[in-house]
């Protein structure tokens, strides 16, 4: 249980969850058909849950980092998630 309190392990866990979440959405969309867009938001729920007791500086910088990786990996450019994910994590 000590691993869950370590903030660097948390960052790695959220990164892996982001990758699994995107692949799960892709698999679910391709199983049914491409007429339906099935999107999983487990990554956003995990960010809101895990960051509720962390300090603001760690929350801000790690969510900017994860948002940039999310944008580059899924959208191939830095876009809106870099700004929305830190705002979501700080205000919720």
Number of contiguous helices: 5
Oligomer: single chain
For the termini, the CA-CA separation is: 25 Å
Rounded radius of gyration (Å): 14 Å
Annotation, overall tally of beta strands: 0
Helix/sheet category: mainly alpha
- The residue ranges in which pLDDT falls below 50 over 5 or more consecutive positions are none
Detailed description of the structure:
There is one protein chain. The protein has 92 residues and is mainly α. The protein has 5 helices and no strands. α2 runs antiparallel to α3 (42-50), α2 (7-32) runs parallel beside α4 (56-75) and α4 (56-75) runs antiparallel to α5 (81-91). The longest helix has 26 residues, at 7-32. It is globular, with a radius of gyration of 14 Å.
Question: What's the structural blueprint in terms of helices and strands?
Answer:
Elements lengths: L1 H4 L1 H26 L9 H9 L5 H20 L5 H11 L1
Helix pairs in contact: 2-3, 2-4, 4-5
List keywords for this structure.
92 residues; 5 helices; mainly alpha
Briefly characterize the structure.
The protein has 92 residues and is an all-alpha fold. 76% of the residues lie in helices and 0% in strands. The chain has helices at 2-5, 7-32, 42-50, 56-75, 81-91.
């Amino acid at each position: 249980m000590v691993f869950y309190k370590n903030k660097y392990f948390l960052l790695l866990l959220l990164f892996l969850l982001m990758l699994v979440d995107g692949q799960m959405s892709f698999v679910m969309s391709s199983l049914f058909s491409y007429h339906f867009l099935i999107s999983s938001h487990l990554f956003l729920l995990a960010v809101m849950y895990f960051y509720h007791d962390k300090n603001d500086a760690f929350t801000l910088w790690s969510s900017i980092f994860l948002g940039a990786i999310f944008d580059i990996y899924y959208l191939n450019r830095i876009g809106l998630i870099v700004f929305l994910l830190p705002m979501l994590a700080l205000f919720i």
